[in-house]
Write a structure and sequence with these properties.
By secondary structure, the protein is α+β, with helices and mostly antiparallel strands. Helices cover about 40% and strands about 20% of the residues. It is built from 21 helices and 26 strands. Strands 13-12-21-22-23-20-24 form a seven-stranded mixed beta sheet, with helices on both faces. A six-stranded mixed beta sheet has the order 15-9-8-19-26-25. A four-stranded mixed beta sheet has the order 2-1-3-4, sandwiched between helices. The structure holds flavin-adenine dinucleotide (FAD).
């Protein structure tokens, strides 16, 4: 047998960490860099250190120190010094109760797949440091498990069965045996089990220096045989493999200077290849893997007039501002004081928001919905399904974040559009005060009762269907609904659905969907709607009744659902329609807001990718053909769900009341 003359060196790094460890959040980038430089040589063995068993019991020796203030300051300092965001407010607002559940959950993930467990942990850190989420809650752990494509039933079983906890406890023993008291601590081992320890934490830490120290350790332990791979990587290369990175992190991973990286990123941003997310004081960058690549090409100097500053209109204004396009929004309301309640954001809507740099903010402000459950009025389960990319968000929160991306002077309130006036190859917009506005492109985002649609397509009218809705927005503390579950009662006897959608912090949207040919309300006054809802829910589980009872006068809304066939086009001359104005959709699909932002993203991507020689007609045709496919699907699905509802019967099964595809 041939003698092995050369054995490839391997270095195992045991990384003692904790999901709450702020220094680990910084060090993770250096570890990534090390893995990249010594590909095939180093392996990582993660051990959970159990840094915070209980927030309640955490005490500093110096009793004068306020623990929330202390941690808040520590995070602020580390964050500023190292160019990564740490949402320190969490320690003052809602301190994480323990790091144990997240540590155990890491093992529940690892029991399925080691690589997925590593990204599961990274997702938890993003949730904590970039969004201020309480990662000690099981809902947050399940959200991360869904995001990382784990089998959720197995994950939950392993999390609760003691199996994952045993592995975590074994780590705590190893930690004690090695006398590890600080996180992160790295121990480097070679093939011969020789090792060196690298302590990392100190307020004065210089991690670039620490990194050089690790390389020296690797060199010593491998007897100089572990050769570093030197690759010339650019910002886009590193972004493709991570969810998002701060400028400093990109500099670390590419070994390039900040000015050079910023230049590279701005160039890629102009092409719509990367998106910028502003997270607290930091610029974070994401590789744009959505289908919407909105370029900054000033739209060949065309101007935009946007009629209606709702969700679709504000999105368009935001995208225009990012693309350096001149745009003005004309909104008939005096302000955004009345904002409606809220809705579900699904993958298509989240992707569209991602394309303008709002993904992290939406994930922060929204409440992740991990499962949909349908039950009978007696509480018996009909259907349960896990959901990915699903959030509940208040309409006001979404409007606020979209508004922030618009220049204040470009949003004009009290501008009541009345009519389009044809002027050769263009339409101009006439307002109630007699003013005429002329723009190269007019975007009609004036909602479900669109005047513009009515004028351009008078043969297409809204048809009221038999389904009616009463919707309530409540704050209700004495109910036991899980924070991540969208639950619906299916009442075949009364022909009614009652849904509850949690918004987080004990806020909920509830809605009753009923068939007006079976049930009828006396009037749409609050007291009549309230009494009607209470009596419909009289035999439902207590929590549902409690939620309705919590509803206050200005928190109730009556809605008549309407449908309309697909329009033959979404434009005429220079005017193009988006959102509810273009295609009213039934509420069953939860596609109103999602489709509005998807329309706006699609349109802006098409327009900003046009050459100067191409006509608006080509762009608008392209927009219609692209959107037609999805809208036809939502219309069909809405009709099916309506049909299910009108012929309510449990025997034929129950479909998920969301249009996801
Ligand atoms: C006040 C309000 C509250 C809502 N609340 C909810 C809710 O709680 N849940 C839900 O699922 N959906 C709600 N919706 C509908 C939801 O916003 C839309 O279905 C979805 O977001 C599609 O967005 P859009 O931009 O097409 O329409 P919208 O968001 O409805 O925006 C249309 C905008 O156009 C403006 N407008 C209309 N006519 C004119 C005119 N003649 N001149 C100038 N401006 C005009 C409106 O004031 C509005 O701001 C609400 C809509 C409004 C307007």
């Amino acid at each position: 047998m041939a003698k092995t003359l050369y054995k490839k060196p391997t270095i195992k790094i045991t990384y003692f960490t904790d999901p709450l460890c702020s220094t680990c959040w910084i060090v993770d980038t250096y570890i990534d860099k090390l893995k990249q430089a010594y590909k095939g040589i180093i392996t990582l063995d993660i051990k959970m250190g159990g840094m915070l068993e209980s927030w309640e019991q955490l005490e500093f020796q110096d009793k004068q120190i306020q623990k929330a203030d202390y941690l808040c300051n520590l995070w602020e300092n580390e964050s500023q010094k190292n160019g990564v965001c740490m949402d320190s407010e969490i320690w003052k607002v809602n301190p994480v109760s323990s790091s144990y559940p997240a540590s155990i959950a890491y093992y529940a993930a690892k029991l399925q797949d080691e690589n997925k467990a590593y990204s599961f942990l990274y997702t938890l850190r993003e949730m904590l440091f970039l969004r201020g989420k309480d990662i000690s809650q099981e809902e947050a752990l399940v959200t991360s498990a869904i995001e990382n494509d784990l089998n959720i039933d197995d994950f939950i079983d392993d999390f609760h069965s003691g199996k994952a906890e045993e592995l975590f406890k074994a780590d705590l023993v190893i930690k004690r045996n090695w006398n590890i008291t600080e996180f992160p601590t790295l121990i480097f081992f070679n093939n011969e089990q020789e090792f060196e320890k690298a302590l990392l934490y100190s307020v004065e830490s210089n991690f670039d220096k620490q990194y050089s120290n690790w390389e020296e350790i690797i060199d010593r332990l491998s007897g100089g045989r572990a050769l570093k791979k030197i690759e010339n990587v650019n910002a886009l290369d590193v972004l493709k493999h991570r969810t998002r990175l701060s400028v400093r992190q990109i500099c670390i991973l590419t070994d390039k200077k900040q000015e050079l990286i910023e230049k590279e990123l701005r160039k890629a941003q102009v092409e719509g290849l990367v998106v910028l997310e502003r997270i607290k004081d930091f610029d974070y960058w994401r590789y744009n893997d959505t289908t919407f690549h909105i370029k900054s090409n000033r739209l060949n100097d065309r101007t935009l007039g946007i009629i209606g500053g709702g969700i679709g209109g504000l999105y368009t204004g935001f995208a225009a501002a990012t693309a350096d396009v001149s745009a003005t929004i004309y909104e008939r309301r005096p302000d955004y004081n009345y904002n409606g309640f809220g809705f579900i954001l699904l993958k298509n809507g989240i992707d569209a928001l991602d394309a303008i740099g709002l993904k992290n903010e939406v994930l922060k402000e929204g409440n992740s919905i991990n499962r949909f459950t349908a039950i009978e009025p007696n509480g018996e389960l009909i259907l349960e399904r896990y959901l990915s990319d699903c959030l509940a968000i208040r309409r006001k929160q979404l409007l606020t974040m979209l508004l922030k991306g618009n220049k204040q002077e470009n949003v004009e309130f009290n501008r009541h559009f009345v009519e389009l006036e044809a002027n050769e190859d263009k339409y101009q917009a006439r307002f109630a005060d007699g003013a005429i506005v002329e723009s190269d492109i007019l975007i009609a985002s004036d909602g479900i009762n669109s005047k513009i649609r009515n004028q351009l397509f008078p043969d297409y009218q809204l048809d009221a269907v038999t389904e009616r809705e009463i919707v309530g927005l409540v704050h209700c503390e004495n109910v036991q609904f899980p924070d991540d579950q969208f639950i619906k009662i299916v009442d075949t006897e009364q022909g009614v659905y009652l849904g509850v959608l949690p918004l987080g912090n004990s806020d909920f949207i509830w809605f009753i969907q009923f068939n007006e040919t079976i049930q009828a309300v006396n009037s749409t006054d609050f007291s009549d709607l309230f009494e009607f809802s209470i009596s419909l829910a009289a035999d439902y589980p207590n929590d549902f009744q409690r939620i309705i009872s919590c509803t206050k006068e200005n928190e109730l809304f009556y809605w008549t659902s309407k449908r309309m066939d697909l329009l033959p086009a979404f434009h005429d001359k220079n005017t193009v329609i988006i959102g509810d104005a273009a295609h009213p959709l039934l509420p069953f699909t939860s596609q109103g807001a999602n489709s509005a932002v998807e329309d706006a993203a699609t349109l802006m991507a098409i327009l900003t990718n046009q050459c100067k020689s191409e006509t608006l007609e080509t762009a608008f045709d392209d927009y219609y053909e692209t959107r037609k496919i999805s809208i036809q699907h939502y219309l069909k699905e809405g009709d099916l769900l309506l049909n299910d509802f009108v012929n309510l019967s449990l025997n034929k099964g129950f479909n998920l009341p969301l249009s996801i595809h």
